[in-house]
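User: Working on a comparison across species. This one is Gustatory receptor from Drosophila mojavensis. Can you predict its structure so I can line it up against the others?
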Amino acid sequence: MFGRRRQLSASSLSASILHVGFRYATFLGIICFGIEGNRTDGCLVAQNRFWYKRFCLLTRLLICVIYGYLSLDYIFILDNSHLIILSWIRLVCCLICAFVTLTLQFWFGQHVLRVVNSYLRLFRKVNALPGSQASGFGGRRELSLLIFKMICLMNEVFCEIPELFNGLNMRLFVTILCELYVNTNATMIGHLCFVGYLSVGALYARVNHYVRHELRRQLQGLEQLNGSEVSRRQLRAAGCRLDQCLAIYDDIQRVGSAFHRLMELPLCLILLFAFLSMTLVSYFIMLQRFRNVGLWLLVARLFFDVVLLTLAIHGASSSSRVVRRLSFDNCYVTERNDWHMKVSLKFVGQSYDSFLY
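Assistant: Here's the predicted structure for Gustatory receptor from Drosophila mojavensis:
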């Protein structure tokens, strides 16, 4: 029983939540690749599933056409000019988000696959650092953000399900189902950005923890109490650990920048979609004289989605800047001038290679 409790750490729970989210995004057709263990060494590798990608293309196109037809039919019967404008803007944003998803899957599919595999390799490298015990995802901060994200996802899925069974009108059933699918696909871009930036922050946090504690302790072990010279073997071993740590910093910065460039435009679109959705729902709340609790919850969920994404980006950015404050002034690195030069130049150079600039 106690062994099982030890296994239920924050990192393992976060990894389980990510696994559930991955299955959910795959079911919706946002993620068209599979992550399986490699046959040679058992390491996780993302691989294309071309048949599922084609199925998602046909399904998304069909549902978007049905959704556009039903939305236009709804807009043409409105008599409120403000509501007509907001509905048109929201319809266009939903279709643009669907087009962006198709673009990421079919024109940038290989690029997305390379970024995902780079993330997986980085987590393997970080878990292989000496003294690293946790093999899951992040720590308590990441677990807290993921729990709040799961609450928002459950609210997003289940808020409109009661409307599906409200009467036996087949047209209403199809309309709500298509709207739920299109809106969920649009917001899923924001959820993927949240996971990507949260992963960058978790990687930086793990390596920063290693530098603060394990690497500092190993470098302090080079100090000889009797003032004798450190052996060349000890210097070589410490130098390898330092080079390994700095190489991981470079890899995180490179992969994080590649993800940021890939998702920069989709992120701007999903933020625009979120704020327009909040505006439209707020207008509905005013029309109903602030008495609809469900719409209040919808606005709160859209707002919390933006806040969680902001916190994930802030965590990745602040963790990348922690490298500037990792000081070795109070840590012994031998009396050799070349070692002082190595530590100073490499860590000063890292300070200008922050993830977000």
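For your comparison, note: The chain has one domain: 2-351.

User: Helpful, thanks.
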